[in-house]
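Recap from last week: sequence in, structure out.
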Amino acid sequence: MPRELYISADVEADGPIPGPYSMSSVGMAAAATFDGTTFTRLDPAADTFYRELRPISDRFEPAAAAVSGLNRDELARTGAPPAEAMAANVAWIAGVADRHRARPVFVAYPLGFDWMFVYWYHVRFTGGSPFGHSGHVDVKTLYATRAGVPVRAVGKRSMPRELLSDRPHTHHALDDAIEQADLFCNVMQWRTDG
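Predicted structure tokens:
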């Protein structure tokens, strides 16, 4: 069984979907490896990727853009061109996966929003995703399965405190990717049998 490298990812965006709207920033942190037998937790702050990106359209939702605290006009001037940012992201993923001799797996909470933007940007600007079309884990679903509760009943407030990260949730993509890596590892290592 091939070893997997779990990469925690978080996105800030200025709207609900990629294409008409833009990804403002992306953060990733190497969280853990798993070979089918041994789950090895990594220091998520030790191997990270972060970029702020230039908008791809003039369209945006002010409330969505405000969540990250990033200034859209400033991003238009100083953000990385998306093709450059995503090429650097693909290179970082390849490098960290090679160092761990593992296949990369995208991890997010919840998965849908972050995966949608990163996958779309990878395909649009680099020709394909280093995660393939299905190499991803939703931490929310993982917790629901382990806890034996419906997915729609899951929220961080409903989770046992010991599963949550001690790091703050700041809406900075890298900070949140690192925080989420802690949550993912805690859920993976959580013993539910008492």
